[in-house]
Amino acid sequence: MEKISTKTELPEYSESIVNTVREPLIVMDQHLRVITASRSFYDFFRAEPKDTIGKLIYNLGNNQWDIPKLRDLLETILPQKTSFDGYKVEHDFTTIGWRTMLLNARQIEHSQSKDHIILLSIEDITERNAIQEGLVKANKELEILTKDLGRAAQVKSEFLANMSHELRTPLNSINGFSEVLYDETFGPLNDKQKQYVKNVLVSGNHLLLLINEILDMAKVEAGKMTLSISELPIQEILYEITGLIKDTANKKNLKMIIDISKDLKNIQADSLKIKQVLYNLLSNAIKFTPDGGEIGIKATQTDTEIQIVLWDTGIGIALENIEKIFEGFFRIETPYSRVTEGTGLGLPIAKKLVELHGGKLKVESEGNEKGTSVQITLPIKHTTTVIRDENKNSHS
């Protein structure tokens, strides 16, 4: 069988080029016998030159290279196309195990002898292929998990909304009848009876607050919380809310500092939702500020925003809890939290309501016993294009 001379076809500089190639490379004659191979080939496939040079490629490594797909490439595809890239071959080698390879082949005609030589480069993509397959599998599993979580969250929100709605009707009756009894509308009560009725009424009102907050949270998470936008005189609203909590602050001997800029522009917002946010935040400031402390509110404006800061000199928040306070039902364990009522939903709801208006809510504290500052930014003009009054479409 005729054999191309290595010296004739591959001079020294060509040998150097072959050995410079990073990927395993085999050079064969037209009869598919190996003329030379790169160092990377020997290293990767754990082969020796004496067992490689002059051998038919299919006979290499005790016939390890007798691969049907490789035969198809070299004997059928390459003679017709003279070159081929990215030909995927998978094979289990006795020396290096299962491998996934991409083969690039070139058939070159010698200018003088008209003989052909074949260049075959081998790119091992076993790990890359495994990673890609793993990523594809992980992505599919993640998609399924995301859908499952979405459905679970939707079911949870709908359950909480329905449950809260169903609970409010009998609870309103309990609270209403308790008020009638406490007011002694149908006759006097002795001291013990009146105290018991008062306990029922206080507990009922607390439970109603909890149910309302759960309902609000469920609506927001389910995307069912809508806004009834109107022109809102924010300056009047701020004075109205501070007036509502003034008596509560006085009972704890708290000094209230009010700094509201004159001539604040009206904003486009939902009046009930904004009042709910401001009242809850100021109530929190009073609740978590010891007797004799200070609370305050400051309001300023830019051309496009109203900026409101509500602050206190109360118990503060540890730095590691700043983000946690926006998680539903999270309450910081302090001596005050053990004696004050609350669901842990006030701040998350306030934040979501502000964001629903296109604004931002941020909480800052330098640590325990160092007070808290809540910063609210509200756009003067609301940008939502479709607004409907949820009170007109709700039976809750």
From TrEMBL:
Substrates-to-products reaction catalysed: ATP + protein L-histidine = ADP + protein N-phospho-L-histidine
One MF term in the entry's GO annotations: ATP binding
EC number: 2.7.13.3
Keywords: ATP-binding, Kinase, Nucleotide-binding, Phosphoprotein, Transferase
CDD domains membership: HisKA (cd00082)
Residue ranges of the TM segments: none
Residue intervals of the Histidine kinase domain: 162-382
Residues spanning the signal sequence: none
Pfam families reported in the protein's UniProt record: HATPase_c, HisKA, PAS_4
EC class name: transferase
Coiled-coil ranges from the UniProt annotation: none
NCBIfam families given in the database record: sensory_box (TIGR00229)
PANTHER family referenced in this protein's UniProt entry, alphabetically: HISTIDINE KINASE (PTHR43047:SF63), TWO-COMPONENT HISTIDINE PROTEIN KINASE (PTHR43047)
Record protein name field: histidine kinase
Lineage summary: Bacteria, Pseudomonadati, Pseudomonadota, Gammaproteobacteria, Alteromonadales
